[in-house]
Design goal:
It is built from 12 helices and 10 strands. It is an alpha/beta fold. The chain has 2 domains: 144 residues, 3-Layer(aba) Sandwich (Rossmann fold), CATH 3.40.50; 108 residues, 3-Layer(aba) Sandwich (Rossmann fold). The strands form 2 sheets. A 6-stranded parallel beta sheet has the order 4-3-1-2-9-10. A 4-stranded parallel beta sheet has the order 6-5-7-8. It is globular and about 50 Å long. Bound molecules: D-glutamic acid.
C-alpha cells in the first residue's frame, strides 16, 4: 500500500499549485494528476454535474489502485466531498475542510475569501471556519472570470488586470486581515494580486493543505519508502493548453489526453 500512487485532481492547472507544494514535502511519492479540462470551469456547474465529474475521477483513481486522493479543487471539496467520503477504500483529502480548521485557529477576526461561484454560493469556507469559531467574520466574493484567465494564460492582459483590481478594491472595503485564495487557480495570479494589496495578506491554502496531507499520511504509516517515481499527468482535453498554463507552478512536459468512463450516479 505504501508504494501505491497518490491521485490528485482539479478542473485544470489549478491543482498544480497544491501539487507543487506537496512534492516539496513528499518528493518520493508516486503521483497521478488529473485535470478535467474538458469540463472546466467547475465553478459554474451544478451540484449534480460536479457529483458526476467527481465520481468519474474517483473511479479512474480506483482503477489506478491509489492509496489516497487529494481533492485539490475547492469547488468539489465544497460540493461533493460529503457525497463520496465513505464510498472508496482510499483516503480522501478535501482542501476546504482541511484548510479551514487551520485558518480558524490562527486568531484572525476578519477574513476575506475569493473563490468560484459554486464555492461561494455554498458558503463553504464561511461555514467551515465558523464551525470552529462563530465570531470570525468571513467576507465572500466569487470571481468567475479568474479560472478562464488562468487556463488560457491571459493574466497579463490589461482587461484581466482591470478585472482583478475591481475585486480587490471591493474586498478591501471590508478591511480583512487576510484573504483566502479559495480556488487553486488563484495563486497563479499572485503577481497581479500583490500589485493591489500586500502579498502577505493572501493565504495560498496549498501550503497548509500539503502539511495536513503529509502529517496524516505519516501518522497512518502510508508514506512511500521505496523509490522515486516520475509524476504522470492526464487531462480530459487540450493537453497543449494545459502544458502552457502549467508553467508557473510545475513545468509539465507530457500530459496524456484521456476520456473517463461515464459514471452512473
Ligand atoms: N480550481 C478549482 C477550485 O479550486 C476549480 C475552479 C473551476 O474550474 O471553476 O475551485
Amino acid at each position: 500500500m505504501n508504494n501505491s500512487p497518490i491521485g490528485i485532481f482539479d478542473s485544470g492547472v489549478g491543482g498544480l499549485s497544491v501539487f507543487s507544494e506537496l512534492i516539496k514535502l513528499l518528493p518520493d511519492e508516486n503521483y497521478i494528476y488529473f485535470g478535467d479540462t474538458l469540463n472546466s470551469p467547475y465553478g459554474t456547474k451544478s451540484k449534480e454535474q460536479l457529483i458526476e465529474f467527481t465520481k468519474n475521477i474517483f473511479d479512474f483513481f480506483q482503477s489506478k489502485e491509489v492509496k489516497a486522493v487529494v481533492m485539490a479543487c475547492n469547488t468539489t471539496s465544497a460540493l461533493t466531498y460529503d457525497v463520496f467520503k465513505e464510498e472508496y477504500g482510499f483516503k480522501i483529502y478535501p482542501i476546504v475542510q482541511n484548510v479551514s480548521a487551520y485558518i480558524a485557529d490562527e486568531g484572525y477576526n476578519r477574513i476575506g475569501v475569493f473563490a468560484t461561484n459554486a464555492t461561494i454560493n455554498a458558503h463553504a469556507y464561511k461555514n467551515e471556519i465558523q464551525k470552529y469559531n462563530k465570531n470570525i467574520q468571513v467576507f465572500e466574493t466569487a470571481c468567475p472570470e479568474w479560472v478562464p484567465i488562468v487556463e488560457k494564460s491571459l493574466m497579463y492582459e490589461l482587461s484581466s488586470i482591470g478585472n482583478i483590481k475591481l475585486y480587490i478594491d471591493k474586498m478591501m472595503e471590508n478591511n480583512p486581515e487576510k484573504i483566502i485564495l479559495g480556488c487553486t487557480h488563484y495563486p497563479y495570479l499572485m503577481s497581479i494580486l500583490s500589485k493591489f494589496a500586500p502579498k502577505e495578506m493572501f493565504i495560498n491554502p496549498a501550503v497548509y493543505f500539503s502539511e495536513c496531507i503529509c502529517n496524516d499520511l505519516d501518522k497512518s504509516d502510508l508514506l512511500n519508502n521505496k523509490r522515486k517515481y516520475e509524476p504522470k499527468f492526464y487531462v480530459s482535453s487540450n493537453p497543449e493548453q494545459f502544458k502552457t498554463a502549467s508553467k508557473l507552478f510545475y513545468n509539465v512536459e507530457k500530459a496524456e489526453e484521456i476520456s473517463l468512463v461515464k459514471a452512473e450516479v
